[in-house]
Amino acid sequence: MNDTELLWLASSAPQINDYPFKRVPKIAFMFLTKGPLPMEPLWERFFKGHEGLYSIYVHSLPSYNANFSPSSVFHKRQIPSQVAEWGEMSMCDAERRLLANALLDISNEWFVLLSEACIPLYNLSIVYHYLSRSRYSFMGSFDEIGPYGRGRYDERMAPLVNLTEWRKGSQWFEINRKLAVRIVGDTTYYPKFRDFCKPACYVDEHYFQTMLSIETPHLLANRTLTYVDWSRGGAHPATFGKADITEEFFKKIAGSDTCLYNSQPTSLCFLFARKFAPSALEPLLELASKVFGF
To answer: Quick check: 119 and 42 in contact, CB under 8 A?
Structure first.
């Protein structure tokens, strides 16, 4: 299918909420990558023993030919892809493509966007429990005053999107099936963001965040589940290498924030983290059973 056909098919949602067959809801893990998945061995351990509770989708550059072994959970999980450029609408196109492919599996209920530099911070049982019990989807959507928030707004987006409705949030999200269908089926907001949110307006930080905050604000937890460190400044977050990987480092992440979960305060705010360099893999595998529980 081409993208138009794919999005059309994926946007079809059953109108009766009770499924007439046995259905075990699954988490769709959607990896948006350029090429290889250097953290593959860590993810393999994360997924092991939880068959039937997850699906995997990989969107890489079209020129990249993956050589995952037949025994890998990533084997033949690449979807037909297009070039996705940072900050461009092609990045959101890739995310919609991932969502649309995942929606074709009626069992997928929760959709998590990840990069090749992401890692899980807990075992899959904890992640599944956290997502399945949540009344909200985890997408940050903030009214940020200043050049990197409201300063990116283009008044030509009005009256569909007014300045007071303009939102910003992390690219890395988790949403439920209802919101995923809204995103792949959108033909209203897409043209406005395509035409009027171009670098230095980075559309992957504004499009879904603004649209969903206008249409379904009551369904958003208004935060991301993916930890990043912006303390070093610049356009990109900190990258963690071999020397950073210690128990103390992950204790710091676990205690870095407090948040709301189903309207109750909690210290368990992040299920994933990024950005991790390939050199971090070996110490991560050594710490995984003790720190992450898998």
So the answer is: yes
